[in-house]
Request: fold
Amino acid sequence: MTTTLARSGRRPAALRSTVGRKQLMAVTGVLWFGFVFLHMVGMLKFFTGPESFDHYSHWLRTLFSPLFPHGWFLWLQRGGLTVALLLHIWAATSLTRQSRRARPVRYARTTNVQATYASRTMRWGGVIILLFIVYHLLDLSMGPANPGYVRGEVFRNTVASLERWPVAIAYLLAVGAVCLHLYHGVWSALQTMGANSPKRDAMIRRVSKTVGLLVFVGFASVPVAILLGYRG
Ligand code: HEM
Reply:
């Protein structure tokens, strides 16, 4: 008890409140959403062929140069995304623990089945996404999980990875998990930010579904095209 109080005492007041932690989840989620959406749009450049795609990847490394030296912006982005991810996971686990403490004995019958299903999906989906991100970085960003990896040849690396059908299927499933997470995330972030009302609820759901589906189709097009034989 004393430890818990001492620990929470060191935290800023905003993070001790449930709303504060939900807002932190929403803001860090939005940052990741922005990255995932732009990454999906960037991945569509894959269809412009090897040279153009590799050039795009090189451009990402020289972004804001000479304001930042070569690659610095990328490292800034990596740092920001890592901090956002850690805060997102911390807020999620702390809110889950708090709701479990408040309700140590599970209800015999759940009144809001949909909300429970969504939050359970979010939790397990979150774990799957985290595992995917680790594998994905080792596969396409750093290379040790990709036998055909050649530094700087991003088009070739993507094909070398996704032409293995079990890997392509795993990517499709992982991207599905990301999009389900996005769908629930966009919906609950809009609610946390106070955009919900019975009237707007249906519209918010439609927007979240469309966004999730759009991101899924965009990402899925790459492994599907490679499986179908596209090589640039
Ligand atoms: C079919 C789906 C996807 C494909 C084909 C794909 C492809 C790639 C490729 C080729 C790179 C290396 C880019 C480069 O070195 O220039 C990369 C990096 C990355 N991807 Fe993906 N990606 C996919 C989905 C995702 C998803 C859903 C997420 C996030 C949840 C994600 C997160 C990342 C991150 C964090 C990096 C590292 C960027 C960096 O080097 O800093 N990717 N991806």
Summary: The two ends are 61 Å apart (CA to CA).
